[in-house]
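Aim 2 progress update. The chain analyzed this quarter is reproduced below.
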Amino acid sequence: MPETTRSSPIELELKRLDKRVEELIRAMNQLKEENRALRQRQEILAAEKTSLLHRNEQVRARVEAMIGRLKAMEHGA
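Predicted structure tokens:
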């Protein structure tokens, strides 16, 4: 057979490797996007946590103030 119609083993191996490299590039791009999304989600959750901790502290202070007022009323009665 003429050389132009039949691929050599080296050409077949190069094509196989080229296909594998393309698959790896696609996987890497997908992982990069997933990583970006996870980092963004992590930032959102960290901000939410900070907000919740702040609100929790505010509620704690209000409850402690109420307890203080109740004790003062109890001692005053």
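The mean pLDDT is 93. Residues 14 and 64 are 73 Å apart (CA to CA). These observations will guide the mutagenesis experiments scheduled for the next reporting period.
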